[in-house]
C-alpha cells in the first residue's frame, strides 16, 4: 500500500474537523496512526480503517477484520443508517485481547473525505498539475505521454492507471510503484497515492479516469485541474445501459469544481456535449486531426486549438507540422498511428494549459515512447516489430491500419483469442486479420480452460469466410503455430527488409493464462531478445 506517513497532529486536527473532541487517552491511542485505508485487509496497528459505502457492500461488513488486524481507529460512514448525528465509542476487542479501538461514526463521511485528506496531507495542495484523462480509447497512452514529457521537461512526473502507478524521472527511468487493481483506483487509495507522490516531489500527475471510476466517485473532490476527453465509442454497456448514459458518466468528470482546463478531441461528435457541460470557471481547448477543420470558428470558442498537417509515416515513426493556432512547429515522434498523434496532442494541450513552453515540448517529443504494450515499437532495423494490446476486432483493425501506413514491404500479424470469453469476436478478428494484413500467424492467447486448437478453429472460420469473398488475397497467407513463442519467432525470423510485424493481444501483460495457471510470458522482453538476433 502506497501511503505517506501522517503526523499525529494532523490526524487529531482532521478528526476535530469531523466534529469530534478527543480525550487525552483517545489522543494517545491515535498517536500510533501512520495512515488510513478503506480496505480492511490493509488495516494494522498503524493503519486506521475507513468503513465506506461501496457499490454492492458497505465497508462496515469488514470492521471485525480490521479490528482483528489490530487497527486502533475505525471511522464509519453512517449516512444511510438512521443516525443523523456523529457518534464516538471506545471499544475493547477480544482478538487481539483487551486492545482499545476508537470507533467514530460520521454522517456523510464520503462527502467529507477530500477535506479530511487535505488536512491529513497538506502536501496535496502542492501539485503543479493533476490531469484526469477519460475516453473509451487512449487513456493509458495519453497519461503515459503526459508523464514522459513532463519528466523530460520538468524532471519528475507520474501516471496512475491500467499499468499501475508509474513514476518517471529525468534519467528516463520508469518505475512501477504500485500495481493496478482497477484503471482508476479506489478513492482512498488514490488520495494516499497522491499524497505519497507529492511527498516524493512528483508534482505533475496524469490519472486515467474510467467511466466506472467517475460514476463511483473515485475521483470526487480530488485536486484535478485539467480534464482530457479522448473519444467515445461502444463499450461497457453492460454497466452503463446505454451510450447516452456511458457518455454522461464520462462528462460527469466536469462536476469536479477544481477543474479549470478542459481539453477535448474536436473530431469526436461527443465533444459538443462536453462544450455544453462546461462550468463557468472551465476553459476549453481542443485538438483536431482533420485537415479541413474550421479552425477559425474553433478558435473563437476555445482557448487553444492544436492541429497538424503534412504527416509522413516513416519506419522510425511520424513526422508532421504541429500548429498551435497559427504558430507552427516541426515534430518527430517515434510512434505509430494517427491515433497516437491525437493522444500526443491531448497530452501537450494539457502542458500548454499549465504554461509549459511549446519549444521545450517540441524538443522533448522525439524521445517519447509508446505506452507499455500500446503500439510500442520494440525493434526498428531492417524490419519493424510492434507489440500492441489490441484484443478486440476494432482494436485489431485500428492497429493494423495504423501499422500499414508505416509498411513498405509486407505487414505481418501474430495474434490469438482468449478462451472462455466472448466467442463471437473470434471469426471477426480472423476476417479482419486476413483483410488488413499480408501474413497472418494464428497462435494462442489466454486460452484459459479451452483448447487453443479449438479457439484457432473459430478464428479460422472467419478467415474461411473472407477467403470465399477474396480467395486470392487469403490464399497461402495464414498459418497456425499454437506455441506463442514459436509463432513470434517464426514471424521475426521470416520478416524481410521493410516489413512490419504486429504482435497483438498481450501488450504489457507478462503471463499466459492456460488451464487456470498463469505461465510467465513477458512478450515485450521476449520480442526484444529475439529482435537482437533477427531484426
Ligand atoms: C462493479 C464495480 O465497479 N465494483 C468496484 C467497486 O466495488 P464495491 O464498491 O462493490 O466494493 P466492494 O469490493 O464490494 O467493497 C465495498 C467496501 O468494502 C471495502 N472492503 C471490501 C472487501 C474487503 O475485504 N475489505 C474491505 O474493506 C472496500 O474497500 C469498499 O470500501 O469498488 C471497488 C473499489 O473501488 C472496485 O475495485 C470494484 O471494481 C471491480 C473489481 C471491477 O471489476 N470494476 C470494473 C467494472 C471497473 O471499475 N473497471 C474500470 C475500467 C473499465 C475500462 O475502461 O476497461 C476501472 O476503473 O477499473
Ligand atoms: N486515441 C485513440 N483512438 C482510438 N484507438 C486508440 C487510441 N489510442 C490508443 N488506441 C488503441 O486502443 C488500444 C488501447 O490504448 P490505451 O491503452 O491507450 O487506451 P485505454 O483507454 O487506456 O484502454 P484500456 O483501458 O483498454 O487500456 C491501443 O493498443 C490502440 O490500439
Automatic annotation (TrEMBL):
Q: What does the UniProt keyword field contain?
A: ATP-binding, Cell cycle, Cell division, Cell shape, Cell wall biogenesis/degradation, Cytoplasm, Ligase, Magnesium, Nucleotide-binding, Peptidoglycan synthesis
Chief place of localization: cytoplasm
N6-carboxylysine found at:
250
**Binding-site positions, UDP-N-acetyl-alpha-D-muramoyl-L-alanyl-D-glutamate:** 40, 182-184, 210, 216, 218
Q: In which pathway does it act?
A: Cell wall biogenesis; peptidoglycan biosynthesis
UniProt PTM: Carboxylation is probably crucial for Mg(2+) binding and, consequently, for the gamma-phosphate positioning of ATP.
Tell me the residue numbers annotated for binding ATP. 135-141
Q: Which residues form the Mur ligase central domain?
A: 133-350
EC top class named in words: ligase
Q: Which residues form the Mur ligase C-terminal domain?
A: 373-507
Pfam families reported in the protein's UniProt record: Mur_ligase, Mur_ligase_C, Mur_ligase_M
The coiled-coil regions, if any, are none
Identify the EC number(s): 6.3.2.-
Which terms does the record give in the GO molecular function aspect?
UDP-N-acetylmuramoylalanyl-D-glutamate-2,6-diaminopimelate ligase activity
Obligatory cofactor(s): Mg(2+)
Origin: domain of life: Bacteria
Where is it located? Cytoplasm
Domain Mur ligase N-terminal catalytic, first and last residues per copy: 33-80
HAMAP family from the UniProt entry? MurE
Q: Which family does it belong to?
A: Belongs to the MurCDEF family. MurE subfamily.
Functional summary from the UniProt entry: Catalyzes the addition of an amino acid to the nucleotide precursor UDP-N-acetylmuramoyl-L-alanyl-D-glutamate (UMAG) in the biosynthesis of bacterial cell-wall peptidoglycan.
Q: What is the name attached to this protein's record?
A: UDP-N-acetylmuramyl-tripeptide synthetase
The root-end lineage is: Bacteria, Pseudomonadati, Pseudomonadota, Gammaproteobacteria, Alteromonadales
As recorded in Swiss-Prot or TrEMBL, the protein's gene is named: murE
Amino acid at each position: 500500500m502506497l501511503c505517506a506517513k501522517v503526523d499525529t497532529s494532523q490526524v487529531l486536527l482532521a478528526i476535530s474537523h469531523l466534529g469530534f473532541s478527543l480525550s487525552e487517552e483517545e489522543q494517545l491511542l491515535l498517536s500510533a496512526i501512520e495512515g488510513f485505508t478503506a480496505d480492511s485487509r490493509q488495516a494494522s496497528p498503524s493503519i486506521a480503517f475507513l468503513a465506506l459505502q461501496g457499490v454492492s457492500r458497505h465497508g462496515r461488513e469488514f470492521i471485525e477484520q480490521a479490528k482483528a488486524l489490530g487497527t486502533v481507529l475505525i471511522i464509519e460512514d453512517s449516512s444511510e443508517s438512521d443516525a443523523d448525528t456523529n457518534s464516538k465509542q471506545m471499544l475493547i476487542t477480544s482478538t487481539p485481547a483487551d486492545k482499545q479501538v476508537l470507533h467514530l461514526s460520521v454522517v456523510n463521511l464520503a462527502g467529507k473525505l477530500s477535506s479530511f485528506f487535505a488536512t491529513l496531507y497538506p502536501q496535496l495542495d502542492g501539485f503543479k498539475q493533476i490531469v484526469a484523462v477519460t475516453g473509451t480509447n487512449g487513456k493509458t497512452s495519453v497519461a503515459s505521454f503526459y508523464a514522459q514529457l513532463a519528466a523530460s521537461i520538468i524532471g519528475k512526473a507520474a501516471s496512475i492507471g491500467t499499468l499501475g502507478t508509474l513514476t518517471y524521472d529525468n534519467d528516463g527511468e520508469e518505475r512501477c510503484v504500485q500495481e493496478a487493481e482497477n484503471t482508476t483506483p479506489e478513492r482512498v487509495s488514490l488520495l494516499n497515492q497522491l499524497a505519497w507522490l507529492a511527498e516524493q516531489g512528483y508534482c505533475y500527475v496524469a490519472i486515467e479516469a474510467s467511466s466506472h471510476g467517475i460514476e463511483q466517485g473515485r475521483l470526487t473532490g480530488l485536486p484535478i485541474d485539467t480534464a482530457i476527453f479522448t473519444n467515445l465509442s461502444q463499450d461497457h454497456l453492460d454497466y452503463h445501459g446505454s451510450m447516452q448514459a456511458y457518455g454522461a458518466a464520462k462528462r460527469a468528470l466536469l462536476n469536479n469544481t477544481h477543474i479549470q482546463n478542459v481539453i477535448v478531441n474536436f473530431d469526436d461528435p461527443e465533444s459538443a456535449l462536453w462544450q455544453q457541460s462546461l462550468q463557468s470557471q472551465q476553459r476549453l481547448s481542443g485538438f483536431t486531426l482533420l485537415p479541413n477543420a474550421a479552425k477559425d470558428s474553433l478558435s473563437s470558442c476555445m482557448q487553444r486549438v492544436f492541429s497538424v498537417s503534412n504527416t509522413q509515416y516513416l519506419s522510425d515513426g511520424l513526422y508532421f507540422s504541429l500548429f498551435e493556432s497559427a504558430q507552427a512547429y516541426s515534430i518527430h515522434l517515434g510512434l505509430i498511428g494517427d491515433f497516437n498523434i491525437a493522444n500526443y496532442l491531448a497530452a501537450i494541450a494539457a502542458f500548454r494549459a499549465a504554461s509549459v513552453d511549446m519549444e521545450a515540448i517540441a524538443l522533448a517529443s522525439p524521445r517519447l515512447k509508446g505506452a507499455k504494450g500500446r503500439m510500442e515499437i520494440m525493434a526498428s532495423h531492417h524490419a519493424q516489430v510492434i507489440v500492441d494490446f489490441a484484443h478486440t476486432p476494432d482494436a485489431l483493425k485500428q492497429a493494423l491500419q495504423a501499422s500499414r501506413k508505416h509498411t513498405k514491404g509486407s505487414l505481418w500479424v501474430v495474434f490469438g483469442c482468449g478462451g472462455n470469453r466472448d466467442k463471437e469476436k473470434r471469426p471477426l478478428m480472423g476476417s479482419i486479420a486476413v483483410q488488413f494484413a499480408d501474413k497472418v500467424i494464428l497462435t494462442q492467447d489466454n486460452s484459459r480452460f479451452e483448447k487453443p486448437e479449438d479457439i484457432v478453429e473459430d478464428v479460422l472460420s472467419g478467415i474461411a469466410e473472407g477467403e470465399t469473398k477474396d480467395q486470392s488475397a487469403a490464399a497461402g497467407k495464414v498459418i497456425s503455430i499454437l506455441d506463442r513463442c514459436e509463432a513470434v519467432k517464426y514471424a521475426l525470423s521470416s520478416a524481410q527488409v521493410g516489413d512490419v510485424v504486429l504482435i497483438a493481444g498481450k501488450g504489457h501483460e507478462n503471463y499466459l493464462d492456460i488451464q487456470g495457471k498463469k505461465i510467465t510470458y513477458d512478450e515485450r522482453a521476449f520480442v526484444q531478445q529475439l529482435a537482437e538476433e533477427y531484426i
